[in-house]
């Protein structure tokens, strides 16, 4: 077929059915625009859908090698369907809505790792929607090298995608489309000039290249954080060469101090449960803080606050333990909502931090993926307060300035009789993204806790250096 003739026919059809409009609009990326392209209407015009799929096939796809097609939700889905049928290649569908309970897959359809998936999209501005789909497909082990697009708005999307190794083929650029409409007297010269001028001046923001936080060394991450405790903890880890947190879950203050005296030099953080200490005195805290000073570690009170903001601010700064006075950081549940962070933000002084619980290590815990996601979002509003997350998975958050504190670690995978699940250092650091590793009974219950702390420290540090070297096989 005569492609340029058919392209002209398509441009005029899109204008006729109001899929391309001129006026004052705002795009999904938040850019003001005098021209708007809305292909959702094509489902009402089967002849236009047919023409689009024929043109994409002839112009862009015939020569491409791929195993699957995947439309970027939602507008491109019917077109991807037509192309799947035409090329007899199977279709994959990406779920756009948030997944709940971890049972729904992000990608629907049958596929094998290493197979090639071709992306279909209607319009690209910044390229971010295509990138989201590419990222989900890649997570499943699929290869994505090419995206075919109806319209390239020429605002940076092509460059953004090409720099992420996604090659773009489009039916039209915006300039080509405008020229066809001008030639056919569908728009005035002034409108045409406005659009061309606008394209020259307004480029979509370049999506920041995503850094894998787990590949950055602690000292680099120390520079990125807004929370003073995260900065100190990253720095301590880098200088002492240890990412071990001792969870000193003993009930006698002398035993705690005795153990910390022995292992203090091997840890970056000591985690307490102050309410299990049977002989608590203020002097115990004085001595613990002296050890912290001597051995250069921080103290985390694992209180797991979970009440309304008002109560939590009292629990934090009043009562027998006066945690606000001595704990460098505390653990907090997001369950009660943002008020809990507001309360701590108001009552904690500036050199304090919060680890928010985004996931738990215990079997059958009721935290869902939606809860975790909402927790991470909540934390983003308090960058100066949040030190990091208590969590189990690398994918839980991306921000390299925050610390992943991961408990449930022993040298061998196992479980205790009450549902605690233990993973190995290799698993939690190399696969699951842990930055600070919490070990309790693995050290506390060992015959020689000091020697065992050294074993943990060395093993954990080895895994970390392997991770940041990027040489994971
Ligand atoms: O999900 C969690 C969160 C925490 S803070 N799972 C946990 O086990 N913890 C704490 O880590 C727990 O309260 C305990 O103090 C420590 C793990 O101790 P272990 O003896 O099982 O290593």
Tally of helical segments: 18
Biggest sheet strand line-up? 9-10-11-12-13-14-15-18
Specify Rg, calculated over alpha carbons.
28 Å
Hetero compounds: 6-sulfanyluridine-5'-phosphate
Low-pLDDT segments, ≥5 res: 98-102
Which range best describes the helical content: under 10%, 10-25%, 25-40%, 40-55%, 55-70% or over 70%? 40-55%
CATH superfamily of the largest domain: Aldolase class I
Structural summary, described in words:
The protein is of the alpha/beta class. It has 2 domains: 3-201, Rossmann fold; 213-469, TIM Barrel (Alpha-Beta Barrel), CATH 3.20.20.70. It is 41% helix and 20% strand. It has helices at 3-16, 46-61, 77-87, 128-139, 157-163, 174-183, 189-201, 218-224, 228-240, 253-263, 282-295, 309-317, 323-326, 339-347, 369-379, 425-431, 441-444, 449-469; strands spanning 20-26, 32-37, 68-71, 90-94, 107-108, 116-124, 143-152, 167-173, 244-247, 269-272, 298-305, 329-333, 353-357, 386-390, 403-406, 414-415, 421-422, 436-439. It has an 8-stranded parallel barrel with strand order 9-10-11-12-13-14-15-18, surrounded by 7 helices. Strands 5-4-3-6-7-8 form a 6-stranded mixed sheet, with helices on both faces. It has a two-stranded antiparallel sheet with strand order 1-2. The radius of gyration is 28 Å and the shape is elongated. The chain binds 6-sulfanyluridine-5'-phosphate. Residues 247, 249, 273, 302, 331, 360-361, 390, 407-408, 420, 438-442 line the site of 6-sulfanyluridine-5'-phosphate.
